[in-house]
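We emphasize that the prediction below concerns an isolated chain of 131 residues; any contacts that depend on oligomerization or on bound cofactors are therefore not represented. The input was used exactly as deposited, without trimming of termini.
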Amino acid sequence: MGLFNNLFKNENSSEKEEQNIPWNALTTLEQVNQVIQDSQGKTQVVFKHSTSCGISGMVLRRITTSWSTIDTSQVDFNFLDLLAYRNISNAIASKLNVVHQSPQVILLRNGEVVFHTSHGAIMDFDIKKFL
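Result of the prediction step, given as a token string:
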């Protein structure tokens, strides 16, 4: 039975549980300001996700798998549900001077955007180059 569990991981497997990113949900404008401030000492990632978009869902699954091993002492991961908090997305676009897109990844360091990308290009993005 152990061999089959190793070959065919199921939904309850521990590997599935290990592939989690400790997302900080962005739900208030104050949090946006805090993320910008926190970027002075630690790289901040903002992932803007549309829960109704298939591409956004695919990108989220892909980055959850590939970024789950990143040392969180180097970076904070911030998640924005665009449908629930469009006003926050608008504030991010305005404060950071980055045109809104979905899905979108924005990296902040020292209060500045050091990188941003969207759609399928997110999957080609190597976050480790920025840490």
